[in-house]
Write a sequence for this structure.
């Protein structure tokens, strides 16, 4: 596909396709047609045939014959420009590592041994033209370019029969099998040994000493690419013992609480008992999936030794990277541009990397900003790779307050860095100008530079759009080196269709990438998550490309790390307890949950395929003489005349194959090219398809009606049914038996932005909790789903159940945070007077809770401050966002009232942490504010009552005050957020909270529901003179 070939827009349902040319100004590339050698300056000369001598067939870099021979004999044997290994030209001397090409005296050409890649291509073409009928029009293979408007033409037809005899007799019966390297026979192995001896005699192989030198490297390449690092037993064993002890203590504590009711406040006691039982259940769900925590190590040098051998083609697997954006006002294009630039500059072979941006808002602002990004990438990418800078997002690299000269030895680095910083600042100005222009939409809509109306002027009714900005045939940097592909995608949207928000956009990108590049692995990132570690993709490949265990891994999840968070992390935005404790524990069971970004997927796992099964244990076989043990041997059918048994089995396989092909349409949709790509486990595009046909088919697979009557969103791709589609998608994979991996490199792989404002943070937590409630009430609820095959491990199921039920903890938590104020206002308590023996239960419970936390921090490396911030925000979010999520979820299930999805704002304030103190009104602030006021009023009332009643009232008061202060301390960050920078709480919050607190207090005094009613005086307390 050619970069900058134009914006392709169209609708498959309406049979229209438009190619808009001339919007992008094609920049002139470096002229490589000179007649002089770029190395020595001499004339290049001509060949025997009189043609200009060309040393490199890939880029045509001008080099003369003597420099070419010297580079092959004494140098790196690679082209100075494109780094491709020089091929041996006719008349050149042979050097070690040469491929035997175009030589009639090469011994290998005496035998026709077909390469595995050629077999794969033949199989692909056979499947593409197989027995799959989709009702298409006539063949359009001859159309190499698009006319301005194409109507009434669909994809190429699919023939009704497999090509007979074209690919051998075994092609049809083996199409349904996975493609693996063919085993080498003993004869071929012996022939290879004899040929090596012959080459050694001819002087074409080096002496055996070189083999001895490289033996250690070969052994290193055969080693595993990663390993588990178990937590030290001195750290994990005490932790497990304390968990068991805490469970026993908790059982005794609950037994004591149930058997010792408070008769004069039975309502308070019963409420507290229900809350404590739920807290115990929630703790079990959260605690036991952390029983087997592990760490992991990767070996990047072994990955290079195995798949990037010198003088051989790079064997690393291709990767497609997905980035999603919706609203350029909430997700600034400059933030998205930095993410794209960090992807394009990643340390990975450029021909193996493709980046797709999904613009679900069809914004011309995003499109033009991406065009500027592609142009700036031509300068930024070579600068990053030449100087090995980290991170490779320019905004964050130039803002680092570190010594940027450390480990830099290039003499021109300072000069180039200064020039690149100025280039980036000019780039920022251009992008900001685009955003500023987009603030006011013209009445006639946006117009492109060539006068064509922007196809996405109506964001809810527009065709699908695809633009290839960078890639082969035009995607070169300023030095003439190839750049990774960069593709703009905006799926078709029409009224009356359900588009499924982010999950639908991700599935559209899966299909588009399968048609255009079809990499076997996919990395998905949010638009504000840039690549902080340029070797992050290689880290994931250490697991996914491992020969021993890689085939059973569905995805590799990286932890989320964030920039721009205040030093104290007031609202627990880093979420380190979850990422550094819970996820490590899940990695020791069946793998971490998918968290929506920073995850590298195996494409076959997203297609709904099951993981490969391991070899089964052989069943015991006995002879016929002893039928009591084992089973009898089955007599093997002898291959009769012409192999009748084998031929009958082959016919059955063919029928089964054809039946499965007919089901592909119902499963994957009506696209022959896409269905073919799903069968290519190792990736790749069908070789018989032209770029024009691929782009037209890409428009087809992003049409709004493509998923109708298919399994997309139910069994394939990102799963629909919840706004937290990430949890559902990972859960479905684990239920099929796949395993996931948690990778935590020393340098964080990805970094993003988090909402440090209180209101934005609560709205984000609300969205997550609402998604969990939706999953709980759906058919994919972990409580009921996935038992049939038994592939999901029990502790893994505990973790998934916990992710769906944790919002319901808000109900007992709200009641429990209200109880202290009620106890202080009514002079009652939830516990009776306890004896010395009973007090041991309370002391032991608090000690076990404290010890569990300390030991957990010890093996995980999380600081106590981060742990405490997490505890505080658990209470803040529980009594606000989680509570509203439960209410909204129940309204959606019972009344069908849906809620709108709000994109979290990624815009940042120019002032350092200025957004932290900004106040934004939301109803989520009312419940925690009310609880704070009630408890403060209760503390004042309780102390005043104790002062009036004398010394004997202070003893019972301490327990109530401790309970109330526990609530206030946990809500303290929320209180600081309400006060803001000027320590002023907005009037509306104060009015609502005081009003609710007053109403609650008056009703309580009037009704007094939880206190036992007594008639007449209590003679035991008052005496006879009452």
């Amino acid at each position: 596909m050619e970069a900058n070939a134009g914006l392709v827009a169209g609708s498959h349902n309406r049979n229209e396709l438009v190619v808009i040319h001339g919007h992008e100004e094609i920049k002139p590339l470096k002229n490589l047609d000179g007649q002089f050698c770029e190395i020595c300056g001499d004339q290049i000369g001509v060949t025997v045939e009189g043609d200009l001598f060309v040393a490199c067939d890939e880029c045509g870099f001008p080099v003369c014959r003597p420099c070419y021979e010297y580079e092959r004999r004494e140098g790196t044997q690679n082209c100075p420009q494109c780094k491709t290994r020089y091929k041996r030209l006719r008349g050149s001397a042979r050097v070690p590592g040469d491929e035997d090409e175009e030589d009639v005296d090469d011994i290998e050409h005496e035998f026709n041994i077909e390469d595995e890649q050629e077999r794969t291509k033949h199989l692909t073409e056979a499947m593409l033209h197989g027995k799959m009928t989709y009702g298409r029009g006539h063949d359009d293979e001859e159309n190499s370019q698009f006319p301005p408007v194409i109507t009434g033409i669909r994809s190429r037809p699919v023939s009704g029969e497999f090509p007979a005899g074209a690919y051998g007799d075994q092609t049809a019966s083996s199409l349904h099998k996975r493609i693996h390297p063919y085993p080498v026979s003993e004869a071929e192995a012996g022939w290879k040994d004899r040929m090596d001896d012959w080459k050694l005699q001819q002087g074409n192989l080096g002496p055996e000493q070189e083999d001895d030198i490289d033996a250690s490297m070969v052994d290193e390449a055969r080693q595993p690419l990663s390993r588990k690092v178990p937590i030290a037993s001195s750290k994990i064993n005490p932790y497990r013992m304390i968990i068991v002890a805490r469970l026993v203590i908790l059982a005794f504590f609950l037994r004591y609480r149930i058997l010792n009711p408070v008769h004069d406040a039975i309502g308070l006691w019963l409420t507290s008992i229900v809350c404590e039982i739920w807290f115990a259940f929630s703790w079990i769900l959260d605690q036991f999936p952390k029983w087997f925590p592990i760490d992991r190590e990767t070996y990047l040098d072994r990955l290079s030794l195995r798949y990037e051998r010198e003088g051989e083609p790079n064997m690393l697997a291709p990767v497609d990277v997905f980035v999603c954006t919706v609203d350029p006002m909430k997700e600034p294009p400059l933030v998205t541009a930095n993410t794209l630039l960090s992807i394009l500059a990643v340390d990975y072979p450029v021909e193996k990397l493709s980046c797709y941006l999904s613009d679900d808002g069809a914004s011309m602002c995003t499109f033009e900003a991406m065009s500027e990004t592609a142009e700036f990438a031509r300068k930024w990418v070579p600068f990053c790779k030449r100087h090995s800078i980290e991170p490779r997002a320019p905004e964050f690299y130039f803002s680092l307050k570190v010594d940027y000269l450390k480990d830099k030895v290039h003499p021109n680095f300072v000069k180039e860095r200064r020039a690149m910083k100025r280039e980036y600042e000019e780039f920022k100005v251009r992008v900001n100008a685009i955003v500023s222009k987009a603030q006011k939409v013209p009445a006639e809509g946006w117009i492109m530079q060539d006068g064509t109306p922007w196809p996405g002027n109506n964001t809810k009714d527009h065709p699908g759009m695809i633009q290839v900005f960078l890639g082969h045939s035009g995607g070169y940097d300023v030095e003439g080196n190839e750049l990774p592909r960069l593709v703009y995608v905006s799926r078709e949207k029409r009224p009356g269709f359900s588009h499924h928000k982010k999950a639908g956009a991700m599935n559209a990108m899966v299909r588009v990438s399968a048609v255009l590049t079809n990499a076997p692995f996919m990395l998905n990132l949010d638009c504000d998550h840039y690549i902080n570690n340029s070797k992050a993709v290689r880290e994931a490949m250490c697991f996914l490309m491992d020969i021993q265990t890689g085939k059973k891994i569905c995805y590799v999840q990286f932890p989320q790390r964030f920039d721009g968070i205040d030093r104290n992390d007031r609202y627990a935005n880093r979420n380190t307890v979850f990422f550094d404790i819970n996820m490590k524990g899940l990695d020791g069971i069946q793998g971490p949950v998918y968290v929506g970004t920073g995850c590298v997927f195996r494409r076959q796992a997203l297609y709904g395929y099951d993981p490969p099964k391991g070899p089964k244990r052989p069943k015991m076989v006995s002879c016929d003489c002893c039928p009591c043990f084992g089973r009898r041997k089955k007599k093997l059918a002898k291959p009769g005349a012409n192999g009748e048994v084998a031929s009958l089995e082959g016919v059955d396989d063919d029928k089964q194959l054809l039946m499965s092909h007919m089901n592909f349409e119902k499963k994957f949709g009506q696209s022959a090219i896409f269905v073919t790509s799903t069968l290519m486990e190792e990736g790749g595009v069908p070789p018989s398809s032209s770029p024009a046909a691929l782009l037209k088919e890409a428009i087809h697979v992003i049409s709004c009606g493509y998923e109708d009557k298919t399994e997309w969103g139910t069994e394939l791709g990102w799963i629909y049914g919840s706004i937290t589609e990430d949890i559902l998608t990972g859960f479905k994979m684990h239920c099929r038996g796949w395993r996931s991996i948690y990778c935590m490199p020393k340098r964080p792989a990805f970094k993003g932005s988090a909402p440090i404002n209180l209101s934005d943070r609560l709205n984000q937590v609300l969205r997550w909790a609402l998604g969990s409630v939706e999953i709980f009430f759906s058919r994919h609820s972990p409580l009921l789903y996935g038992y049939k095959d038994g592939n999901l491990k029990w502790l893994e199921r505990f973790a998934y159940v916990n992710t769906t039920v944790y919002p319901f903890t808000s109900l007992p938590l709200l009641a429990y945070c209200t109880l202290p104020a009620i106890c202080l206002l009514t002079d009652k308590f939830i516990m009776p007077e306890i004896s010395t023996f009973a007090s041991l239960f309370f002391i032991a419970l608090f000690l076990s809770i404290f010890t569990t936390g300390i030991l957990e921090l010890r093996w995980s490396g999380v600081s106590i401050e981060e742990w405490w911030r997490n505890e505080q925000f658990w209470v803040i979010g529980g009594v606000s966002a989680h509570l509203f999520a439960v209410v909204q979820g129940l309204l959606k299930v019972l009344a069908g009232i849906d809620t709108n999805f709000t994109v979290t704002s990624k815009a940042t304030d120019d002032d350092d942490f200025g957004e932290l103190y900004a106040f934004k009104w939301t109803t989520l602030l009312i419940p925690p504010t009310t609880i704070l006021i009630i408890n403060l009023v209760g503390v004042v009332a309780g102390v005043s009552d104790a002062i009036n009643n004398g010394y004997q009232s202070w003893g019972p008061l301490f327990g109530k005050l401790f309970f109330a202060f526990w609530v206030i301390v946990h809500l303290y960050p929320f209180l600081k957020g309400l006060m803001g920078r000027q320590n002023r709480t907005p009037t509306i919050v104060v009015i609502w909270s005081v009003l609710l607190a007053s109403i609650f207090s008056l009703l309580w005094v009037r009704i007094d529901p939880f206190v036992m009613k007594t008639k007449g005086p209590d003679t035991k307390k008052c005496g006879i003179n009452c």
